[in-house]
TrEMBL record, chain A:
UniProt source species: Halorubrum coriense DSM 10284
InterPro entries: Asp_carbamoyltransf_reg_N (IPR020545), Asp_carbamoylTrfase_reg (IPR002801), Asp_carbamoyltrfase_reg_C (IPR020542), Asp_carbatrfase_reg_C_sf (IPR036792), Asp_carbatrfase_reg_N_sf (IPR036793)
Family to which this protein belongs: Belongs to the PyrI family.
UniProt-annotated binding residues for Zn(2+): C109, C114, C135, C138
Matching Gene3D superfamilies: Aspartate carbamoyltransferase regulatory subunit, C-terminal domain, Aspartate carbamoyltransferase regulatory subunit, N-terminal domain
Gene from which this protein is expressed: pyrI
GO cellular component assignments: aspartate carbamoyltransferase complex
Protein name: Aspartate carbamoyltransferase regulatory chain
Origin organism lineage: Archaea, Methanobacteriati, Methanobacteriota, Stenosarchaea group, Halobacteria
Pfam families the record matches: PyrI, PyrI_C
PANTHER family associated with the record: ASPARTATE CARBAMOYLTRANSFERASE REGULATORY CHAIN
UniProtKB/TrEMBL annotation, chain B:
Species this chain originates from: Halorubrum coriense DSM 10284
NCBIfam families: asp_carb_tr, PRK00856.1
Protein name (Swiss-Prot/TrEMBL): Aspartate carbamoyltransferase
Gene3D superfamilies in the record: Aspartate/ornithine carbamoyltransferase (3.40.50.1370)
Enzyme Commission number(s): 2.1.3.2
Record SUPFAM superfamilies: Aspartate/ornithine carbamoyltransferase (SSF53671)
Subunit architecture: Heterooligomer of catalytic and regulatory chains.
Amino acid sequence: MSDHELRVSKIRDGTVIDHVEGGQALNVLAILGIDGSGGFGVSVGMNVPSDRLGRKDIVKVEDRELSQSEVDVLSLIAPEATINIVRDFEVVEKNRVTRPDGVTGVLSCPNRNCITNAGEPVETRFDVVADGVRCDYCATILRADIADHIDV
Amino acid sequence: MRQDHLITATQLSRDDIEAVLDRARAVADDPAAYADRHAGRVLALCFFEPSTRTRMSFDSAAKRLGMNTIGMGDVDSSSVSKGESLSDTVRVIEGYADALVLRHPSEGAATLAGERVDVPVVNAGDGAGQHPSQTLLDLHTIREDHGLDDLTIGIMGDLKYGRTVHSLAAALTEFDANQHFISPDSLRLPRSVRFDLHETGAQIREHDELEPVLGELDVLYVTRIQKERFPDENEYHRVAGEYRIDAETLEAAADDLTVMHPLPRVDEIAPDVDETDHARYFEQAHNGIPVRMALLDTLLENADPDGDEGTEVDR
């Protein structure tokens, strides 16, 4: 483990999400629905130096192992992220995020006239397309500003 | 067409489109054969937004298939004004009818309705989204005049908010069509429509003037530029004036150019065009009847393939 990661302490068990694009750590937590109320320890490092990314964020969640489908949604805002599952201080599994086919209930549609913004009892659903995501309801395409539309 | 609903033109294959248009032709040739085909069935006309021709056209088409129709009346006096969700409204109406036609001001409304009910849903316009039944009657009109292959079409006016344009452009990608889009810069095709066109490898070009392409066109499809799209009324008048055609404009067009319009028009096509051989917009509107009859017939048949379809007709 590098010195940079020592800025936040090692965890015994849980998940380390590394190589998150600088500034996106809080969005990562939002997507994962982690707001601290679950009682498990959460450490966040933001804008720490990285050889690969220049600056990166790191999120460590104690006593919780994130599933692949949970973390795949992260690929939309943190395509370079690596997911380390830690047990008894050892990394037992290391995975890259992969782009899912779609995301449900995570993003709000930027089109104010979309039926998903009309107070209906409906979860948003976006298809992942070549360079962004696309609302299944109104077909609006969301590209660079995905993080601004996280709604969890 | 093995579809449960008609929500967007992008869901339609060439075979789907041709099957409905073939059936529309059969209906037009022998309407009496279809007169009792869906007797006893009920079509719900769910119009959350004002509509004259689309609603009356579906109403008439359904009745000519032997169906009864029910409507919501004025939205202001219905449960919608009491704050009921669309999801609940269509679930209730599903119990009253064998199919739903939905016009709604929000994009994606028909998709949502289709997820909530088991009876066929036809999208009759969702905000600035799609209007696929209009597209079927547009294609029927084009096919009767020119056929649908080797077509060069100009689509002019409000391409950004024009749902008939979005549906037509998508459906034409199933055919060998060159599409020219003519509009002011501020009313160009939205990103989502352009994305779909590029995905299919469609041949499209965008222009800000009609004149350079007019002579190449087989079809000119004109849409209305709406005043409310412009913050400044002077700007509206200036822009709208540039996309207005009259009989003189069409002197530079091919003799067999077909001029279409989804209607209502305001003044984007001068009345003197009505008297030329180019004008086809009233026939186009009339084609709504056989095409919507064919569409309803197809969807009801898909929904209940073993049901009693009434008089068997030659197809």
